[in-house]
Amino acid sequence: MEYNFEVSGIYYDNKDGTSRKDIIKKHLDIDDYTKINVTLIRHGGNKHDRNAIGVYISKSGFFRFNNLMIGFVPREDAKEISPMLKEGGEIISAEIYKVWLPSWSDKTTPYVHITINTNWTENDVEEMYKRIKDERRKKRLEKRSMSSATDKNNVIIKKVINYILNMAILIFVYFLIFK
Predict the structure, then answer these.
(1) Which of 72, 89, 100, 144: CA 20 to 30 A from 53?
(2) How far is CA 177 from CA 53, 73, 165, 169, 173, in A?
(3) Do the record's keywords include Transmembrane helix (predicted)?
(4) CA dihedral for 131, 133, 136, 137, sign (positive or negative)
């Protein structure tokens, strides 16, 4: 499958404090993007989105640089791509196809468009969604059956306690009357 998207989160800084906007302005201010390598890395522990996928750029050669983060795959696309990667799918190619760098203001955020090709099909995605839905349904049913069994045990315990209390009251009344 092919995905085309605008990199999101460019206006934020990276964890090390580097500006993603500055990285883009410095390294993507060229007309030939074919020499720039694009890598997508899952960020499964991301507190904002469990499907988060970081977009990194690198370049080999004399003016080389390695794995500089420029943003994320948009949430809508990551929702599909991340589980497929987790299940063993592969990205065949990832490349920049369009960059816009604002020239009139340093405060304006640039944008970067990426295209990726994968080794999965639409049917693979549908099957993955169906599997996830079935797994979630199964977990809900297990949770319900566990709570149902707990409810049944609670009912039995309540009946036993009521029986014991009633017997205690009868014994108390018996001793009051016949003593």
Answers:
(1) 100
(2) 79, 81, 18, 12, 6
(3) yes
(4) negative
**120-160 pLDDT tens trace:** 999 999 999 899 899 988 888 887 776 666 667 777 788 88
User: Which residue in 121, 100, 10, 106 sits closest to 55, CA to CA?
Assistant: 10
Residue 166 within any structural domain of the chain: no
Question: How many domains in the chain?
Answer: 1
Q: Which domain holds residue 114?
A: 2-120
Tell me: the pLDDT tens digits for 15-48? 999 999 999 988 887 767 778 999 999 998 888 8
Count the residues in the chain.
179
**Does the reported pTM lie above 0.85?**
no
